[in-house]
Amino acid sequence: ASITLERTDSFGTASPMAEVNLQAPLRQLYDKDFARWIEATATCLRARDAERLDWESLLEEIENLGKFEKRELESRLSVLLNHLLKRCYVELPDCYRGWQLTILEQRNALNRLIKQSPSLKPYLEAVLEEVYQNALAEAREAYPESSWPQEFPFSRKTEDLLSKVFWAEGASNA
């Protein structure tokens, strides 16, 4: 048996791309050509063809999507906290603009992530302390001459963390 892979354009119009022989199970395609496996899986899903689906790999990929979003959130949060720390606690005025632009970039990306997946907000709050400790360690390593706060110096409210200008208040009041 074979299926015809289709590509859907931005208007929802499907057009044939290629025909895939499904004598071999989709699991084998998953191991040999991941991109083709995705196309074949999407085609099976659109056709409601549950019998041909590679359920094990499909579930694994869906679970990995959630893990990817969490890793991206942690990475962006780490960069944000690292740059907030540098901007508030490192006296290098020539670097302020670059740090502030990075802060803005990471805040925008985190806001988009949370808007697309609101369930990530509690996850951000849950990992905040651990991510902060890593960001603090990186900042201390990069700028050992600076004085660093022992406790988390910023508001823990997600809305504040993703918008507030902490350095305008002075580092000790962040």
Structure explained in plain terms:
It is a single chain. This protein has 174 residues and is mainly alpha-helical. Helices cover 61% and strands 9% of the residues. The chain contains six helices and two strands, in the order ββαααααα. Strands 1-2 form a two-stranded antiparallel sheet. A hairpin with a 5-residue loop joins strand 1 (2-8) and strand 2. Helix 1 packs antiparallel against helix 2 (34-46), helix 3 (55-89) packs antiparallel against helix 4 (93-116) and helix 3 crosses helix 5 (120-142). The chain starts with a strand and ends in a 13-residue tail after the last helix.
Structural class: mainly alpha
Query: Average pLDDT, to the nearest integer?
Result: 88
Report the principal-axis shape: elongated
Strand content bin: 5-15%
Number of helices: 6
